[in-house]
Amino acid sequence: MNDPPRPSSLGEILDRTAHVYRSRFLVLFGIAAVPTAVILVVASGIFLFFAWFGSTGSGSTAPVPSGEAGFYAGVLLVAIGLLVLPIFLVVTALASAAINHAANRAWLDEKPTIREAYKTIWHRGWRYIGLYSLQALLIGAVPLAAWILLLAVSAGAAAVAKSAGMGASGGALFGILAFLVFFGLLAYFFWMLLRLSLAFPACVVEQIRPWAAIKRSIRLTHGSRGRIFLLYLLGTALNYLLSIIITIPVIIATALIPGANSPQHQQTAGMVMLFTLYGSIFAIQAVTRPVYGVAFLLFYYDQRIRQEGFDIEWMMQQAGLIVPAAAQPDAAPWLPPIAPETEAPEPPHPSEPEPQQGGENQQIIHPPPAPGEPV
Questions:
Q1: Which among 16, 119, 132, 351 could disulfide-bond with 93, CB atoms 3.0 to 4.6 Å apart, if both were Cys?
Q2: What is the pTM of this model?
């Protein structure tokens, strides 16, 4: 960073985000492409399974029995729960940490690499996975569990009201209540999303633990959650614009394929178009994910400047007036390294004399006294 840090407006943060992203585009895009490719492969497998299952079930020669269909659906749900979700959580957490690390090095005018970013955050992988899990729990799992509980209570209350003879009035009352609770949970979702948006920059830059990063983000975002909300709106608009730019040419190209509208090839053309659209969505995620990472890192430093005087601390460090705090020791890696085998000491050569060990009868030679000093 050539210019001294100072408080920045939203426009200045967006301008610096674009500058950092352009200058380190290949690195940031490469970091974001790794989890996107993993998720795309898994999603493609699920998509192909559904396509095969649908074509097999709709065929007239060998329809799939209902019992077998239920078995396949159950196996797929178990696979999604036990395999896909953990993979998604791990790769997304590591990619978010790597993007923040690379953005921080770019902010310091250093040159990060994809390998260096992933290698650095790998030693603290459990920390970032724990932080992402906490964020998912507080932002998404809590309102989802509350909504499911509400649906269950509403279904039970509707049955009780029907048995009590309340009729349509009771159903309307529960419908209004469910509507209000839904918007309350939606407000909670955005409220927690804004409060926890700076947790990853704090965790990566300061090397603090997940719960400390959560509390740090809540404190740092105070007073700037409106600007962060505008950033989310701009990011959503950018995603929507890129989706339109990619989707329309795909639809036109699919429609211009000879014989694509014929009954024999209509299903195949639809599957190809749907698969291409899904791939384009994941590609858009790989392009836009670093934008959020760089912008949130700049918001993190901006909030530290506004609340903690980080600009003064930075200039004093550059002038050598204060020494930066020592970094915390690295956490233990996921898999501890294999200790090298220690070789036994070689026995002394017969011609070499063995070193003498001190004992009780060993003579001690004192230096002679100085002139004028009593003996």
A1: 132
A2: 0.74
